[in-house]
Amino acid sequence: MPSHCGEHETAPVRSKLLTSFEMAFLSFKDVLYRRGALTVLNRVSFDLEAGETLVLLGRSGSGKTTALRLINRLLEPESGTILFDGEDIQHVDPILLRRKIGYVIQEIGLLPHWTVGQNIALVPTIAGWEPGKRDERARELLSQVGLPPDEYLRRYPRALSGGQRQRVGVARALAASPALLLFDEPFGALDPVTRREMQLQFLALRDRYQTPSVFVTHDVAEALTLASRIAVLDAGNLETIATPDDFRNVSSPVARSFLDTLTPLDKVH
Question: What does the mean pLDDT of the chain come to?
Fold first, then answer.
């Protein structure tokens, strides 16, 4: 799979050449988003293939979270096109679009007065699933994220640790078998050991479900661990995009600055 490592690329970046009969699962095409005089995303283009995890890596303010919010139409671009499974999302009802997308954020956002089982079944409940089917799905997912259902199904979020709440958040995102998953620095507030456990859990769930994902982080080690490809954003520009193996050899400046953080300070001269 070829990589593209040019500095501040604005042309579409593809993970592979697509024939006229093929189409990426998610595409940004010259997407521009401005907040007042500030350009947050500067005509960004990239593709996400089926089953792939694209990690958006960048410093605070680089446009990573804005890209996620544009995908589920919490924000609207000034220009450009976002295609989801071949359809321009501007032609899709935002509520219906969001029901097809699982969204995991750092703050988790569990409803405090709902049990764990009720939180996981939020989207199935909205979609009108029968109670027995909702309960069965919640139990299945709790087992998959490492929380025994008989112990956790009827607990409330306040009775959970941060790592346990994040596991419930991931289970909730998967509950209605979404077509796409969005992760906005979901493990950033966790201690290093719990964070590592959640990263391993993410990889196991990805192998199980093969759901395409866009994952935002500012942690290059996390990006190298989880990504099929890594896209570096800098001040709204797509600087480079590469597989983890190729990323270690890129020469673009922001990518190199992230890689330099992997070198212990006592080795820096």
Answer: 88
At 263, the pLDDT band (50, 70, 90 cuts) reads confident
Summarised one tens digit per residue, pLDDT across range 130-180 is 999 999 999 999 999 999 999 999 999 999 998 999 999 999 999 999 999
Distance CA 75, CA 53 (A): 22
How confident is the model over 192-242, as pLDDT tens digits? 998 999 999 999 999 999 999 999 999 999 999 999 999 999 999 999 999
For the entire predicted model, the pTM comes to 0.85
| Domain residue spans of the chain | 1-14+21-96+211-262
Residues ≥6 apart with Cβ < 8 Å to 128:
none
Q: Which residues contact 238 (CB under 8 A, 6 or more apart)?
A: 8, 9, 10, 13, 44, 45, 46, 231, 232
CA distances from 147 to 108, 142, 151, 162, 212 (A): 16, 5, 8, 13, 24
| CATH number belonging to domain 1-14+21-96+211-262 | 3.40.50.300
